Q: What sequence folds into this?
């Protein structure tokens, strides 16, 4: 694959940003959008718009078909058994909230335990914390090791006969650690514990096969997969979606509504109340096609090359300290510079068009454990090049110069 | 935008070697502040004597060069001032960081005002304004005996 050609498909790189060529190293936060996705939204609103699943006029039927086509594309992309196992949400956050809320309602009671890890993003902790408040459940955290990994053993150590669900990240947005999710699922299932995978960082970068992983739930963020904001996916095994109560009530999710009672709709409508992010769902099909055209194996290979190059380069840069050293690692490099706060790093890098993120990356539990208030993070997407990493390295040197290091 | 406006020598100096960093025993007012966006936090301690004068002031915390320098310069400025004067300086400073071109109070000397104006560079960096203002809001909270932790986000 030719990266220059791929990069040209992203309009954001056409123009200078603040007089600089954009070096976008914040894809773990949100990826840029290829032209096909942007155009699809425009075309839908200008030529094809209608609400879906309700009216019978031409536009409504056509829009409904397009909307459902994305569901089938996602099903195939992640190799789910059934298209009804794909639920559209407003994001991965909502997907996790949906599971925590409905599973919690039905299966969790006082003293039950939910097992997370110290790596989790706030979106895979706060929804469970709500249950801790409402139902007096306990939350346990599998510990990270010195390399910033969570091993199968550290998960196993925290499983008790009170553990009712395990919810873990596929790929850490800070250390980049890829968790052994298939093994975790096997272990959990041997003890009859369901598993939710937070796939925000996994889905954009790794090959996904739901039937092979065999997890019960998998949460996906659309805007990190070159898709629009406002769209996420909850993959859930059909048995769970049939078994769990609905999440939000409203139009579209019902079967029959009477004064004396209500019956709920069939899957997948049961979990899609109200008017959904129609244009975004339809445009997300273009993101899937875009990734399929390049091939996830090629994306993985490219990002691994960038990662190896970036790690080598930054390790040679004195006073740069890289956070974590996982054996299996995705395209994320979190770092600190001795004597320069990450926010100052980010502001100085930005001056040269190098866009990174600084802060706790919504992982305060992890940063507390690492005893760091904040880190700087460079994360890769399919459009990044080794040249971007060279520019990052140069900008870091400038930063050191300003701070007289 | 020019980085030199933001990272002036005085900011780098106070950021690296913050004055009044730490805690002293006989403080009678204190407050905490934090910035949930980045996890930075500050704890301001001060001793107000019977004449409502700031006898001593110090802070604990960690943050970027801007926030550390701001807290450092602030604590230097308000020591020895009366509560009323401190509040006037705080209001003046926050006004300057938000919109005004200069400081208008008659309490600080010209060289002190110049020192404070070194923080005015953050105006060009809207995401960084909170770094400069956190310790000032926290100081106000300490004077007002507020039990609320100051947050930059609501």
A:
């Amino acid at each position: 694959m030719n990266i220059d050609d791929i990069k040209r498909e992203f309009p954001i790189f056409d123009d200078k940003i603040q007089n600089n060529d954009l070096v976008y190293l914040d894809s773990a936060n949100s990826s840029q959008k290829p032209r096909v996705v942007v155009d699809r939204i425009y075309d839908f609103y200008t030529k094809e718009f209608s609400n879906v699943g309700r009216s019978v006029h031409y536009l409504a039927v056509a829009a409904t078909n397009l909307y459902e086509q994305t569901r089938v594309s996602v099903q195939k992309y992640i190799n789910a058994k059934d298209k009804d196992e794909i639920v559209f949400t407003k994001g991965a956050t909502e997907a996790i909230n949906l599971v925590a809320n409905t599973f919690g309602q039905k299966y969790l009671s006082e003293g039950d335990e939910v097992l997370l890890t110290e790596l989790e993003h706030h979106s895979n902790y706060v929804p469970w914390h709500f249950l801790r408040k409402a139902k007096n459940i306990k939350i346990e955290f599998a510990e990270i090791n010195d390399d910033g990994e969570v091993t199968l053993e550290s998960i196993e150590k925290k499983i008790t006969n009170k553990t009712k669900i395990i919810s873990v990240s596929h790929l850490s947005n800070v250390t980049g650690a890829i968790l052994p999710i298939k093994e975790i699922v096997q272990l959990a299932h041997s003890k009859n514990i369901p598993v939710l995978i937070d796939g925000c960082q996994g889905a954009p970068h790794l090959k996904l096969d739901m039937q092979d992983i065999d997890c019960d739930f998998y949460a996906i963020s659309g805007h990190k997969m070159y898709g629009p904001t406002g769209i996420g996916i909850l993959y859930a095994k059909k048995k769970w979606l049939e078994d769990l109560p609905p999440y939000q009530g409203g139009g579209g999710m019902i079967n029959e509504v009477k004064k004396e009672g209500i019956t709920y709709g069939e899957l997948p409508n049961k979990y899609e109340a109200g008017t959904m992010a129609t244009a975004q769902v339809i445009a997300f099909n273009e993101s899937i096609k875009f990734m399929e055209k390049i091939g996830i194996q090629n994306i993985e290979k490219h990002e691994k090359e960038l990662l190896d190059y970036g790690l080598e380069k930054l390790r040679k840069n004195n006073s740069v300290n890289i956070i974590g050293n996982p054996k299996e690692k995705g395209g994320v490099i979190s770092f600190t510079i001795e004597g320069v706060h990450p926010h100052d790093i980010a502001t100085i890098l930005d001056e040269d068009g190098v866009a990174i993120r600084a802060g706790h990356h919504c992982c305060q539990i992890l940063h507390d454990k690492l005893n760091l208030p904040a880190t700087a993070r460079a994360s890769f997407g399919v459009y990044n090049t080794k040249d971007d990493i060279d520019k990052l390295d140069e900008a870091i040197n400038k930063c050191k110069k300003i701070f007289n290091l | 935008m020019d980085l030199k406006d933001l990272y002036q020598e005085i900011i780098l100096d106070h950021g690296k070697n913050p004055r009044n960093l730490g805690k002293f025993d006989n403080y009678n007012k204190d407050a905490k502040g934090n910035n949930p966006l980045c996890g930075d936090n500050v704890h301001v301690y001060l001793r107000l004597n019977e004449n409502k004068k700031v006898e001593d002031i110090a802070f604990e915390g960690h943050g970027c060069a801007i926030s550390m320098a701001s807290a450092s310069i602030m604590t230097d400025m308000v020591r020895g001032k009366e509560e009323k004067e401190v509040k006037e300086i705080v209001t003046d400073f926050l006004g300057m960081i938000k919109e005004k071109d200069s400081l208008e109070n008659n309490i600080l000397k010209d060289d002190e005002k110049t020192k404070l104006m070194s923080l005015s560079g953050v105006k060009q960096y809207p995401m960084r304004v909170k770094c400069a203002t956190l310790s000032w809001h926290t100081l106000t909270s300490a004077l007002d005996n507020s039990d609320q932790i100051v947050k930059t986000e609501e």
